[in-house]
Amino acid sequence: MWQENRFVAFGSDVSPQPAHRATLNREHYSGRATMQKEFDTVWTKAWLIAGIERDLEEPGDFITFDIAQESILITRTEEGGLSAVYNVCQHRGNRLHIETSGSVARRHTCPYHGWSYALDGSLLHVPDRERFSKGVDCAARSLKPVNVGARNGLVWINLAVNPLPLDDFLGSLVGELTPYRLEEMHVVREQTCELDANWKTVIDNFAEVYHVDFIHSQHASFVNCRDARVDLFPYGHTVFRVDGYVVNPRYPVPDEPPPILSGALEALGLDPRDFHGRVNDIRRAAQARKRELGRRVGFDYSALTDDQVSDIWQYNLFPNVIMTVKPEEVWIMRPRPHPTDPQKCFFDKITLAMPIRQSGDDTSLVLIGDPEAAKAMQSGRRPEREVFMQADVTSGSVSMTETVDQDIFYLPYMQAGMNSAGFDTAVLSDDENRIRHFHDWLSTWMADRVPRP
């Protein structure tokens, strides 16, 4: 069996089939005209994940989100709602906050001239207001609002005047993500890497597994990427469902569990020797064992199917979110366009983990597969964001996990090659249909042909 692809509609009114066909040429990945058109038609019209709702628990808590040349300020208001505004003072345009997160008592105050605004963006105070001989209209000079919403523990913003409703944009994906309970998870790591690659080059990398056998050889011994199930949704979203605790059937099934799979069994308290000649039984055994361990330490798997308990499902949410989902841990990866250079982007990786209920052994830490994430969870502190360059990853001084590090090594070479006179257009296999679906929908957005229910 090979990768299965199917189109999935959001109800009867919205087809998953895009209206346009993209040409994946040099201009598409490197052109400044394309970059500007993407800003005008995608970044200012699609819903974007701006942050994690848990970072906005109390009135006055705020986060900032930068997309291209814009900065957005999102705040928990005194009434308990969310406010999103452009992060720019209405006096002379200074950024109100340069921090990525923080908390204010009752107002945002511009550090340059002291203009202050309520948590909802209303202008409250102008120092020496009497010196403005023409007066200051506080209502007209309040911060400019941005559409904001929260779903599945994630904060979404939209810069359009009349956007597609968030629930219509996400459709059935909200329900699919609900059993994972992202809203209960904590941020245990946040990283941002500046890459020498267009943001779409990053999306493409995480939209196909054709490359896995060649640069991620370790995957062959614990996941089955070849036989993944792919769903293609309206608006450009896709889901990729990969079996875990298995070996790649492209190769002969070994008599003994390979080292990575043996380590996973031992971590769950299972003896690899019990699976001599039974490697294909490991996945079901791991599902049952994880449910047993979960009951001991408070991981609730009851709303999840057996497949969700053991497998790795990746949700690519248009335009720029790659979400790798497991019950205990979620990666939210997000390439953002550089404000001036189409050959660069900022690549964010936010790791969420379900809270640990301490037990007498390390069972709860085992279920969180990332040791560093487990340490952060034990500390009880929300980590600061790490910011670094691509060279820091390729030199080995910083890691975004082995697999992502391997991708980062190759992405600049992919970008450089697409600038070459030796490259005309990309050619895609049937196992790269997620790339095709994404780019065709991107072209549909850019042509202003996005349907509404």
Architecture of the largest domain, CATH level 2? Alpha-Beta Complex
**How many structurally independent domains?**
2
Instruction: State the helix count.
Output: 14
Q: Radius of gyration from the CA trace?
A: 23 Å
CATH topology of the largest domain: Naphthalene 1,2-dioxygenase Alpha Subunit, Chain A, domain 1
What does this entry show, briefly?
By secondary structure, the chain is of the alpha+beta class. The protein contains 14 helices and 19 strands.
Provide an overview of this structure.
By secondary structure, this protein is an alpha+beta fold. It has 14 helices and 19 strands.
Question: What topology emerges from the helices and strands here?
Answer:
Elements: E1 4-7, H1 26-30, H2 32-43, E2 48-52, E3 61-67, E4 70-76, E5 82-86, E6 101-103, E7 107-109, E8 116-118, E9 123-125, E10 147-151, E11 154-158, H3 166-170, H4 173-177, E12 186-195, H5 199-205, H6 212-215, E13 223-232, E14 238-244, H7 259-267, H8 282-297, H9 306-310, E15 312-317, E16 321-325, E17 329-337, E18 345-353, H10 363-367, H11 371-379, E19 386-389, H12 390-394, H13 402-418, H14 433-446
Parallel strand pairs: 1-13, 12-19
Antiparallel strand pairs: 2-11, 3-4, 3-6, 4-5, 7-8, 8-9, 10-11, 12-18, 13-14, 14-15, 15-16, 16-17, 17-18
